[in-house]
Design goal:
Elements lengths: L2 E6 L14 H9 L14 H4 E5 L7 H17 L3 E6 L5 H12 L2 E6 L19 H7 L3 E9 L4 H9 L3 E4 L15 E6 L21 H9 L7 E5 L10 H17 L2
Parallel strand pairs: 1-2, 1-3, 3-8, 4-5, 4-7, 5-6, 7-8
The structure holds manganese (II) ion (MN) (2 copies).
One manganese (II) ion binds next to loops.
């Protein structure tokens, strides 16, 4: 199945530094850079799998932006395409999941992140990039939620996650990932700050002690089914070093596209 690559240039729901809105065209440029090959580790050509692009601007109003994201994802799904989305901050994932749920029902989700993003509200904003999975759970978009890479879990989020059966794993616990809970329909959400800043310095909230690029690739390779959708979020090009993090994001685009093409 062919994949539509979306770019959602949105960072107004970020609680600290802006800049993630600049990421989609940067990742796209890395994907097409002659500095690296478009082939995935498994031997698929991402440029042949990603055959449509939607990088349109978003409205400035938050509710209108979320509605636009949801409608555009729904449109791709309606035409039988799988969405692979580039943030933007992590708030874009909630409207994506709303559209995914309309087609697939509740999704099992692999969520790579330093943070749970399970706040009821953050600094008064229920749609902050610290909240998307709380909103998705409340809306019935989530079957099993498996988080890995965590290293800043607040008591508030721990309680919310435990109440909803969320599997919350630290970066040192990749061996405990319950892959049997990640059957279809499977969605993958990669917040680049789940990686260690040594591998992915270009994020707004770097937290030392994270996953390596290779660990994330190994987790993706173990997924039991082909994902029906995925996103890569929180690249902040203004904080990147020599396009390192953009290159990691492009690698994940290639591997996710290959998995999604099955
Ligand atoms: Mn996040
Ligand atoms: Mn994060």
């Amino acid at each position: 199945m062919t994949v539509t690559l979306f770019g959602f240039p949105w960072d107004a729901s970020s609680s600290y530094a802006r800049g993630a809105a600049l990421a989609p065209p940067v990742i796209r440029a890395m994907l097409f850079s002659e500095a690296s090959s478009p082939w995935s580790i498994s031997g698929a050509n991402a440029r042949e799998i990603v055959t449509a692009y939607d990088f349109a601007d978003l409205p400035e109003d938050g509710a209108a932006a979320r509605a636009s994201i949801e409608a555009r994802i729904a449109s791709a799904l309606k035409s039988g395409r799988k969405p692979l989305s580039l943030g933007g901050d992590h708030s874009v994932t909630y409207p994506i999941l709303k559209a995914m749920k309309e087609k697939h029902g509740p999704l099992n989700i692999l969520h790579v992140d330093a943070h749970t993003d399970l706040y009821e509200a953050f600094e008064g904003d229920r749609y902050s990039h610290a909240c998307p999975f709380a909103r998705a759970i409340e809306d019935g978009c989530v079957g099993n939620l498996v988080q890995v890479g965590l290293r800043s879990v607040t008591p508030h989020c721990r309680t919310f996650g435990e109440r909803h059966g969320v599997v919350m794993l630290g970066a040192e616990e990749t061996g405990a990932i319950p892959y049997d809970r990640l059957g279809g329909p499977l969605y993958v959400s990669i917040d680049l700050d789940g990686l260690d800043p040594a591998f992915a310095p270009g994020v707004s909230h770097p937290e030392p002690g994270g996953l390596s690029t290779r660990e994330v690739l190994q987790i993706l390779a173990k997924l039991p089914v082909s994902p029906v959708g995925a996103d890569i979020v929180e690249l902040n090009p203004e904080r990147d070093i020599n396009m390192m993090t953009a290159g990691v994001a492009a690698r994940f685009v290639k591997e996710l596209a290959a998995l999604m093409s099955d």
